Structures are given as C-alpha cells and as structure tokens.
Known about the structure:
The protein has 324 residues and is an alpha/beta fold. It folds into 2 domains: 1-114 and 297-324, no CATH class; 115-259, TIM Barrel. The protein is built from 13 helices and 9 strands. A 7-stranded parallel β-sheet has the order 1-2-3-6-7-8-9. It has a two-stranded antiparallel ribbon with strand order 4-5. A hairpin with a 2-residue loop joins strand 4 and strand 5. Helix 3 (55-76) crosses helix 4, helix 6 packs parallel to helix 8 and helix 12 (270-284) packs across helix 13 (304-317). The longest helix is centred in the middle third of the chain and has 25 residues, at 138-162.
Amino acid sequence: xxxxxxxxxxxxxxxxxxxxxxxxxFELVFYLTMExxxxxxxxxxxxxxxxQMSKAEKRAQLEDAARVYLMTAERYGHSAIFLHGAGSGxxxxxxxFINLVDELGGGQYFLMIHGDATYSIPNGTEMMAWxxxxxxxxxxxxxxxxxxxxxxxxxxxxxxxxxxLDGFAMCADYCLNDGPFLSPGMFAEFVTPYLKQLCGxxxxxxxxxxxxxxxxxxxxxxxxxxAGPHALHSLDPQGGVDIAEIKRRFGDRLCLIGNVNCxxxxxxxxxxxxxxxxxxxxxxxxxxxxxxxxSNCVYTxxxxxxxxxxxxxxxxxxxxxxxx
Length: 324
C-alpha cells in the first residue's frame, strides 16, 4: 500500500486517529490568493454576465476557480478544501464544481461546503426582530428551525448521491468573545436539538460534520459536543478557549481543529506567533484527533509571512513520525 492521500489522512484525524507523518492541516478559508498567486479568491468573484456566458465560458470560469483552490492546498499543505463556490454560478453549478475540483485534484483532497442550518447570531438589521420572536413566537422559530434542517438534509442527500463531497463546514457562529449570543438555556431550546438532528443525519449518510463557531464557546461547549459533530473548529483563544482544556475534557469524543491565535498573527510578535502554534501542536497532537489550523481563517489583510511562519513551526514540530 502507498502513502495515504490527504483525504485519507484528514478523515483519520476526524475519526480520532493519528495519521502518519505531519498532522493534517487546512484553513477554513485562505483569502490571500492575490498575494500568493495573483488570483482573486473564488468567493470574491462576481460574474455579472454569467447568464450571458456560453457553456464553455462558464466551464472555463469554474476550472479557474477550482485551480485556485488546488494551488492553495498544494502550496500550503492543506489536506482539505472548503469550497465557497465560483462566483455567480451559484447552486446551479454546485454539483459540477465539487466534482470538477475532485477530478482536477486527482481525488487527493477532502472536500467540504457550507452545511449549517441552525440559527447563528442575527445580523444587525435583523437582530431586534429576531429577538422579539423569541418572546412572541417561540414555536414559530422552532418550526422554522425544523424546516431549515429538513431542507439541509434533503440537499445533503442529493449531494451525497451525485458528487464526491466528503462533508460540511457548519458555519453558524453562536458566540462573541465574552460568551454565546443566546443564554445557555435558550441555546439548548432553539439550537441544540436541531444541531443534533443535522449532525446525526450527516453521519447516517456517511458525511462528515465539522462544527465551526468563533468566540467563547465554554458556556455551551457541552451542548456542542453532545450534538455529535466529528470535529469542533475554531477553538478561539481570543474567546478564552484553551485547547489543552478542550483536549483533556473532550479529546476522546471528537476531533479538534484550530486554536492558533489569529489576533497574534496580526498584532503579536513573531515569537508569540511561534509560541501559539507550538502550544496547539503540543496539546492537540497527543493520541491523534487534531488538525492544525488558525483560530479563524487566513483572512484579507493578514500578513502572508505570518501565516508562513506558523507553517514552518507545523512542518518542524507537527510530525508524528519524529516524536519520541
């Protein structure tokens, strides 16, 4: 047997195992494609004349977007790719795009797309009205939550049947740096049952569920783990989340992803960045079930050299074969 693929190593970690060689690595998003390759990130592309393009022109746009994702994964050692689409192609080309990336990547990479259908922190224009519904129409909120989950499950069934998709990044943000938006009691009522249903449905289909939320998750962390995702991302140190504590309490129940401090990558010293990366590897790696990542994503405005700095730490100190 040959060396495991990136996809196989990533799924090993998601299943709580310890893959050979380097700890798997990925970023929820790597937005610095212009700095790295001179290419606009696929999610920032707006094809205003998409409907006027020929089939060949649309295919060329999709192929270019796919290659940007693959160039990023190859250069920076990502084992998984979170596909944000390809501009205005939208859901019409969702299946085609997933399979195109898999084909061009030779089946090497774990592929995921957005797949959360639970309530996140409402945006500023909807926040007051949404909060009012908790008091005025709680059952209506729950009925809506159930419909959203049912729709997400139906979509997942279609994608499982027709594509090479491996799983979903469940990107509903629940928390601010000082705690969850909803009280733990309200979270247990309006979010937890639906998150648990969705994670269970994905698992039953053989798809992976990676739950992402920034901020201080500690007041609701038991709910998040009990909902049954395969992994928890981003373990935000700016929200007071310590990977050592999460590993001790829950490391035997799910995979951990993240915790390298994005704030320090922006405003800290190089030594602090190195120490943050080293701390995550030290406490995340033992026994497997860890994937190296920043505590959010490689976002627009971040210094690419800082990201490359923590990758140097990962390459030197994140190799299971060199331990002991």
